[in-house]
Amino acid sequence: MSDTYTLYNPTVMDHFMNPRNMGDLRDADGVGEVGAAACGDIMKISLKIRDGKIEDARFKTFGCGSAIASSSMATELIKGRTIEEAMTFSNQEVVNALGGLPPVKIHCSVLAEEALKAALEDYVKRHPELAERAAAAEPVSA
Amino acid sequence: MRQVYLDHQSATPLLPEAFEAMRPYFTEYYGNASSLHQHGLRVRDALKKARQQMAALIHAESEDEIFFTSDGTESANLAIKGVAYANERKGKHLVISATEHPSVVNSVEFLEKQGWTCTRVPVDREGRVDLKGLEAAITPQTVLVALHHVNHDIGTIQPVVEAGKICAKAGVPLYVDCEASAGWLPIDVREFGAALVSFSPHRFYGPKGVGVLYRNKRARIVSILHGGVQEGGRRAGTENIPAIVGAGVAAEVAARELPQWRAHTAVLQKRLWDGLSRDIPFIKLNGPIPGPDRVSTNINISTEFIEGEGQLLLCDLNGIAVASGSSCVSKSLKISHVLSAIGLDHALAQGNLILTLGKDNTEADMDYVVETFVRIVDKLRGMSPMWEEFERGVIDSVIAPRGFGKSFSEHAAAVSGKAAH
Q: What ipTM is given for this predicted complex?
């Protein structure tokens, strides 16, 4: 409808109303849950990893529309990536893919990046043999 | 789709009779009230009539005690800064409650940067000001006490008559912010013992762009806008005549219809809260239960394990217009200071929604809101890691604790590295 106004752009609204990959993964290989001290939002990302690649990703979010959309988009973007690639994932990718977020909502995309990194860290922790490789890739992510 | 407007605290539709009354003042009677010719004298008459209509609504002794401003914020600024500056030699201390509107709080903060001090009197868990604390806060240097009639967020009705007695005894003027009560509760400035009272007609079906400040002649006040000698020299600037005329009509209608509007919204308020509390587990009403301690137009709820902005967006997509005090809705990322002041858990403040009723809402609207909100809560809880963790027993409910699991706030602090503000 042309006479309907929305708080966010159509892509963000779509990911808020029809979130992709919402839920949990049974027997996840890595789970990350992070909170934003600034606003109180909480995000959880679960990963299924096979042969060094993110095979599947799911999210759950306690937060506003842009936090839900950010986690939905982040899980879409990282599927199929290798652990090394995912380690360099940046919130800016989420912002770009969503077609932009209001300045005050950029921290929602940062939370999605942090939740993904926390899930990867959890995976690496469960696989100490990977720790060295992951540590080498990590500085790039900043 | 059914459209249900539940944000009457922000704005109300203009009454058709107010609109009709305003119309000629845009095109035919366009004179400036300061002009000395026919055009000016005609609108001066209209201005006087509107002043009388405002005075009648709040039982002021004379229309000369009514100033027109641009809105409620300007009225609050004038009341606080105007009285503070006028009484600077007497003292530089102010007393306010902890749950005043931002236009009051921020006016006071502005003065604090210039050497004034202010005591913020706490409120109880339902938002009622501590009268003993208020009395104790007054010092010989106190030049003004500010207390709202009804809280803008949670609908609490304050004991303004008692506060007025305390102020009278101490010889300090009382400013009562009636923004959330005018048109919905009877206001008698003399019964309140108020030196100043402010309200905005756009809260009771008048136009935006006009605010009212009542000032008892005994209260000293100086202008904070400098220019011409409009409004008895207390508020410079050309009067917004069309809006003032419309506001006058709205005040007259409100004075007449108030008992019906109040009774109607009280029925809806009860129906809405009864429905929500019956059909949604882990939901809490903030502020007093519907009845004599709460304005009939306000419902303020916290729904546990989900955040307020998502609720607001989904309500809007279902034709329901509401507000929220969640940090996600605020540009400063802070939860409503009113919810903090009543000691509400941060997690519950995050899940906050404010629904404000009006005369045109119906019982069918309330049933639609309850029905729709049940679906919205289910959808958002399905997406919430907190709901899942509650179901798994990792965290406990604040509203109805089961006695096991961490508190939501403890959990949030653990995963975010530090406590939310």
A: 0.90
